[in-house]
Amino acid sequence: MRASVIVFPGSNCDRDVAVSLEQAIGKAPDMVWHGNSDVPDSDIIVLPGGFSFGDYLRCGSMAAHSPIMRDVIKKAKDGVPVLGICNGFQILTESGLLPGVLIRNNSLNFICRDVHLRVERDDTLFTNRYSMRQIIKVPVAHHDGNYFADNETLARVEGEGQVAFRYCNEDGQIVDDANPNGSLNNIAGVYNETGRILGLMPHPERLADAALGGIDGKAMFASLLETVH
Amino acid sequence: MKARIKITLKNGVLDPQGKAIQNALGALGFDGVDDVRQGKYIEVELGQTDRDAAEGQVDKMCRDLLANMVIEDYEFELEGGE
After folding, report:
1. Total of domains in chain B
2. In chain A, what are the helix, strand and coil shares in percent, each to the nearest 5?
3. ipTM value of the model?
4. Which of A64, A112, B45, B72 has the fewest CB neighbours in a 10 Å radius?
């Protein structure tokens, strides 16, 4: 299995996610500079967190037009799985691979803390090592993670089972108090129509090793190994 | 030729920054501020001198990069040219 991590100017979670991938699949991923035109043959492409292009104009808007994205979009449309974490999620919505958009947190604050998530699907290549409705703890660290979509898009995302994770409290309840940023329906992550592209604001790679204080994120990378060959 | 581009949030899109500005205006004693919406203003200098061509070019700029059509609307005016 081969993984590629796309590195944009301003990416800062690329090495963390590379460590998580290597632990799961036993092989270091290819680190691919955004200015390249081709992604090497990969079983999974990861767009990491960070502040690509300084978050200028809109988060992820410049990176969505980086030269490498033409090939990422092509490969994604051919069915290559793509995972976007935090800024990577923003890049995926800006490039049109995922529905909706991430706007400024409703508190206007940058939020950096652990949150609880409820796993909404356990049948995808990213989540088969989790169980349905499992409550996991992973950190968020963002200023613009407030998921928004127009009514029609939101109804489609909900209706087609494209919600991957929701912010919840410790007991798994989807309540306003557990929503860190104002996201519609407490949405923390979404899939595309085929479930092969996932974007999420929380950082599974930051709690994927006991030394970091938690391993709830580890199952996502282990899931990939299980399903992608 | 210069393009003056105005980008605004679509109706119904939450604007936390606009809300914060509204609250700040209230705190400063400005009464009767019913709503505040924040947008962006961008000026682009164009080498293009043909107005129609410039219009098409700026329109494409807005759709491809400057505005996110999921949440934003745009309008622009051109200054100079023929």
Report:
1. 1
2. 30, 25, 45
3. 0.88
4. B45
CATH code, domain with B16: 3.30.1280.10
Touching check for B69 and chain A: CB below 8 Å? no
A86 is annotated as an active-site residue: yes
Window 9-48 of B: residues touching A by CB (8 A cutoff) are: 12-14, 16-17, 20
- Given the residues A86, A94, A142, A143, the one annotated as active site: A86
CATH number at residue A63: 3.40.50.880
Mutate to test the interface with A, among B14, B21, B22, B40 (most CBs of A within 10 A): B14
Question: Is A193 part of the annotated catalytic residue set?
Answer: no
**Other C-beta atoms within 10 Å of A173: how many?**
13
What pTM was computed for the model?
A: 0.95
Q: What is the pLDDT of residues B34-80, one digit of tens each?
A: 999 999 999 999 999 999 999 999 999 999 999 999 999 999 999 98
Boundaries of domain holding B64: 2-79
Angle at B79 between CA A57 and CA B37, to 5 degrees: 40
